[in-house]
Amino acid sequence: MASEMMDALMALCEERHIDQLYLIERLEQSLAKSYAEVLHLDYGARVTIDRVTGNVYVYRLIPKEESFDEETGEYTEFDEQDVTPKGTSRIAAQHAKAEIKAIVNNSVRQQIYEEFSHRIGDIITGTVLQSAPEFTIVKIREGVEAELPYYNLQRHPEERNERPSNERYSHNQRLKAIIVDVRNPNDAQAPVRDGRRRPSIIISRTHPDLIKRLFEHEVPEVYDGTVEVRSVAREPGVRSKMAVSSHDERLDPVGACVGPKGSRVRTVVSELRGERVDVVLWSDDPARCVANALSPAKVTRVLVDQENNYATVIVPDDQLSLAIGKEGQNARLAARLTGMHIDIKNESLAADIMRSIPQEVDEGSREQEGRHRCEYVGPTGIQCRNMARPGSRFCGIHEQSGAYDDLPASDDPDSLI
């Protein structure tokens, strides 16, 4: 019987990838505590299990007088006396069942921790197993569960809220979420709910990186790195902004993310339960970046104070409310996206600021200064599209004919002019 028990233990260790010596040592420690109580042993007991036959031996610990430590008040050395009772195999089997269950559960939790602790930031797809007022349990695969918490942070400040306010989940519903944390099962302060350990994996539907991971799934250019997501700002369940840039000058990064007729961004919006996603073009120029981030509002001018990380934005009068957004949402997201403090003014209020700023003259405009189109008008009434030559009203083709127009008309009826 004992040999059969050892064979079963070894088979279980091999199946669950548990160290055999570790399992036997745990059983010996558990049995030692139990026999010390059953046999009323004052100084405890030591239990050994034969690795081949599975027989259990119990030894009573008898302290040596010369080993007494006055500082600790305890004995450090003991003699052993064999007090193995009858029926040790039956008691060992009962303890083995409980210990093996605990060890297997701990082993599974440790394996999950080792696998997923390196996957923080990855997106997963799971099925809703249980939904409660403060959390949802999501099944990632057989034997692996994750927790999506959404506690009231005023009542539970130590907890977290990872669910958008507009989302509700039903049984067997499929969800995509991002892994934000993995609890260590060996932590003595691991959270417990209803007497059971809570799942080690914590997932989120509110994290900004969820937007990036969803676009990686939908947009091949983002997945292979041709289009880079430079920044994401999000108000979960309501609206998000994502700034992108391209490593290929021939590729439009915004168009790649939006997709044909908006098909790609529409798939992301559907997964986010209708959350609006604005894709804007990133620029290394802070002024241009701020102007793009305030899209769809049109911007007249952006004045940037890089030392104080401050940007003053001037917009047309009819674009002020659009630039600020409902309850300041558009401006708030733009500030998060660019990492700058943004102050928005309309042109009427900013007239004094505009007058004090010297106007920049574009070099291209300076080159075109003094140049105009050829003034020649053909018989059909269509003006020539060529540019006039320097110092002339006409282009090289019509310059000669234009010269005749400048001559005074003659009174001689035989004259051609």
Question: How would you describe the overall organization of this protein?
Answer:
This protein is of the alpha+beta class. The chain folds into 5 domains: 2-112, NusA, N-terminal domain (N Utilization Substance Protein A, Chain:P, domain 4), CATH 3.30.1480.10; 117-204, Nucleic acid-binding proteins (OB fold (Dihydrolipoamide Acetyltransferase, E2P), Beta Barrel); 224-282, GMP Synthetase, Chain A, domain 3, CATH 3.30.300; 283-360, 2-Layer Sandwich (GMP Synthetase, Chain A, domain 3), CATH 3.30.300; 371-404, no CATH class. Helices cover 32% and strands 24% of the residues. A hairpin with a 6-residue loop joins strand 1 and strand 2. The longest helix is centred in the first third of the chain and has 29 residues, at 88-116. Residues 361-369 and 412-417 have low confidence and may be disordered.
Essential attributes:
single chain; 417 residues; alpha+beta; N Utilization Substance Protein A, Chain:P, domain 4; OB fold (Dihydrolipoamide Acetyltransferase, E2P); GMP Synthetase, Chain A, domain 3; 5 domains; 5-stranded mixed barrel; 3-stranded antiparallel beta sheet; 13 helices; 18 strands; disordered C terminus
Q: CATH topology of the largest domain, anyone?
A: N Utilization Substance Protein A, Chain:P, domain 4
Helix content: 25-40%
Question: In the CATH hierarchy, what is the superfamily of the largest domain?
Answer: NusA, N-terminal domain
Number of DSSP E strands: 18
What proportion strand? 15-25%
Termini separation (Å)? 132 Å
Write the layout of secondary structure elements.
Elements: H1 2-16, H2 20-38, E1 45-49, E2 56-63, E3 68-69, E4 74-75, E5 78-82, H3 88-116, E6 123-131, E7 135-141, E8 144-149, E9 174-182, E10 192-193, E11 196-197, E12 201-204, H4 209-218, H5 220-223, E13 227-235, E14 239-246, H6 253-258, H7 263-271, E15 276-281, H8 286-293, E16 301-305, E17 310-315, H9 320-324, H10 329-338, E18 341-346, H11 351-355, H12 363-368, H13 399-406
Parallel strand pairs: 8-12, 14-15, 17-18
Antiparallel strand pairs: 1-2, 2-5, 3-4, 6-7, 6-9, 7-8, 9-12, 10-11, 13-14, 16-17
Helix pairs in contact: 2-3, 4-7, 8-10
